Amino acid sequence: MNGCQGVDPKMPLGTIETRTFPAVLTPALAMERLNSAISELKSDPTPSFDSGIIRLQDASSNGSPICNIPNFPRCRSNNKLKQSTGFAPSSSTTHSLAVSSRDGAKTCSDAVKISWLTRSMGVLPLITMAVLLKTMWFLSKECPLIRAYGAIRFDGRATVSSEWEAFGSFYFIVPQVEFVELEGSSMLATTVAWDNALSWTYAQAISTLQATMRQVSSIVVELRKDVPITFIISNSHVPGKKSWDHAVNRALQMINRSNSALVKVVLARSSRVRTTTDIDPLTWLAHLQVGGENTYQFCLQPPDAPAFIGNSPEQLFHRNCLSICSEALAGTRARGRSKAIDLQITLELLSSPKEHHEFTVVRESIRRKLEASAVCNGVFIEPEKAIRKLPRVQHLYSRLTGKLKREDDEFDILSSLHPSPAVCGFPTEEARLLIAETEMFDRGMYAGPIGWFGGGESEFAVGIRSALVEKGLGALIYAGTGIVEGSNSFQEWEELELKTSQFTKLMKVEVPLLIPRKGESGTIHSN
């Protein structure tokens, strides 16, 4: 993140407003209406304010005209009630992200399916900020759909590796252009932001937006939902199996020491997969959407950088005014091939002492963090322990709710809840230090917060079940597992395989070997 030196983030913007136009029949008409409105804004070259942000939005009755824009930095997210898609025209100053909540009733009106089409606003530090506080400066309850989307590293103190360099310690943007898919309709919206103190004038903002609109309207194609056949050339793990066994056994030795405070540590693995053809992150994510209920799907891609995609089942927190909720998620089992087998596995998960211990550590740690930080007046847990079933795995689950003492507590909430014991361990600092000593790769945004801030609402998921996808380099697939007393390195390795299978199932294990048989020139046979 860059910029915004010399600007007082406490100074209010000159104007913040949303202008909504009557619904039209098609997205094309909505595009035409917005272009006209932008031209009208341009006709006033000297606005009354030195800074401001204006959102223009127009609805149409057609809900799915824009699915994919090729060769653009882009983003997509999905959950059980709504779907999000985002794109950004490719240039050195563009950024893109979209992340949606899982509770449509609590976010955009009665929306059950939402998409964002995004492009950053040039070099304006509104988009590339050195401090998150600057992002909040552009948000207001009066314009709740103006949001800042982004992600934060798992460990901001760790050295940033080359593959994560474009993301920085954290990465947030406010969309310039959004495409919102509603149930049976859609909404196209644009945002104009300017600040003379940042040498980003109203005229520059308008001109950049018009250029973006021309790109968006000229390059639109249908998103592929089928995954093209991709063969794996190579697949390597960090750590490898032998090193993993050593790391788990070392962690268990520390946990079992009588003078050790460590109760749980989450160790992760990075798997580099190289493929015969480039992987389209949005195609992967669209395929995951098929069974994506109860998950946050996201894609974050800075300009000229890899795409960070994921299919996370874990909510870090959701704040709506003074109300807040969080989730405890721990313990993992595969789904059964039949209802009877699935029920048997569920009962085993519910009755396992080891899984119960791991889950209780996570749940009670989240409760204590909310209470001890003085963020909440009280915390309520319901259910105490239940099962969350996903297409390939199932977990122990609990929901925690409370009332905030103040509405401007996002940073207190983030610093209190992250890192979650579900992705770091307990106690937090002891687990973090062991992770830093043990893991030989950079987690980057994996297991970090990913979500959005709004004027009166915010929501973040935990960036797990994720991968970093880069053109020409295949993918880095991340997964972690909690180590507690009673853990077994072999079983934990199998759990890693289970968690990464949502990605590896989209690829063939090996390239077919095609060799001409002797005496049959011109004929190729597969051995």
UniProtKB/TrEMBL annotation:
Keywords: Isomerase, Magnesium. Its EC number is 5.4.4.2. It comes from the Eukaryota. The keyword Hydrolase does not apply. Gene3D superfamilies: Anthranilate synthase (3.60.120.10). GO terms for cellular component: plastid. NCBIfam families: isochor_syn (TIGR00543). It catalyses: chorismate = isochorismate. This is isochorismate synthase. Coiled coil: none annotated. Pfam families: Chorismate_bind. PANTHER family: ISOCHORISMATE SYNTHASE 2, CHLOROPLASTIC, PTHR47253. GO terms for biological process: phylloquinone biosynthetic process. SUPFAM superfamilies: ADC synthase. InterPro entries: ADC_synthase, Chorismate_C, IsoChor_synthase, MenF-like. GO terms for molecular function: isochorismate synthase activity. Belongs to the isochorismate synthase family. Residues 241-499 form the Chorismate-utilising enzyme C-terminal domain.
